[in-house]
Amino acid sequence: MRIMGLDYGSKTVGVAVSDPLGLTAQGIEIIRRKAENKQRQTLARIDELIAEYQVESIVLGFPKHMNNDIGDRAEKSLEFQELLKKRTGLEVVMWDERLTTVEANRTLMEAKVRREDRKQYVDQLAAVFILQGYLDFLAHEKQKG
């Protein structure tokens, strides 16, 4: 059972997938688009990755404000969730992604990745953190129950 994690941004979508056992998340790519409202190619690429990795569900980062409010970016993520559900027919879980980009940047800095090179990895790494957080949650729920 593979799960896909997505970090949805205005011009990029970071993509990660779980291993078949649902234990670990691996970054696979960053989908780039020229404008925020250009979704067709993004959705087509996600379809291809779902087929390639035999994905059964999707976790989409939900960028709430630190005070738990839902802003413009979170609204756009909810709209993208609906597009994904309609297009793929899969369950799309919204997952709190607060500070994942900060954590991704910190990880890249600690790995001594040059500042100008970080941009090409940060969204993919943020998708890994989103998905891994969800996988850890599932594992914890399984242990409890």
* Shape, principal axes of CA atoms: globular
| Termini gap | 19 Å
Number of domains: 1
For this entry, what is the oligomeric state of its chains?
A: single chain
Per the CATH scheme, the topology name is Nucleotidyltransferase, domain 5
Number of strands: 5
Share of residues in strands? 15-25%
- How much is the radius of gyration in Å? 15 Å
Instruction: Let me know the largest β-sheet.
Output: 5 strands, mixed
**Which architecture name does CATH use?**
2-Layer Sandwich
- Secondary-structure-based class equals alpha/beta
Fraction of residues in helix: 40-55%
CATH secondary-structure class? Alpha Beta
Would you kindly provide a written description of the structure presented here, covering whatever features stand out?
The chain is an alpha/beta fold and 145 residues long. It has one domain: YqgF/RNase H-like domain (Nucleotidyltransferase, domain 5), CATH 3.30.420.140. Helices cover 50% and strands 25% of the residues. The chain contains four helices and five strands, in the order E-E-E-H-E-H-E-H-H. It has helices at 40-53, 72-88, 100-110, 115-144; strands spanning 2-8, 12-18, 25-32, 55-62, 91-96. It has a five-stranded mixed sheet with strand order 3-2-1-4-5, with helices on both faces. A hairpin with a 6-residue loop joins strand 2 and strand 3 (25-32). Helix 3 crosses helix 4. The mean pLDDT is 90.
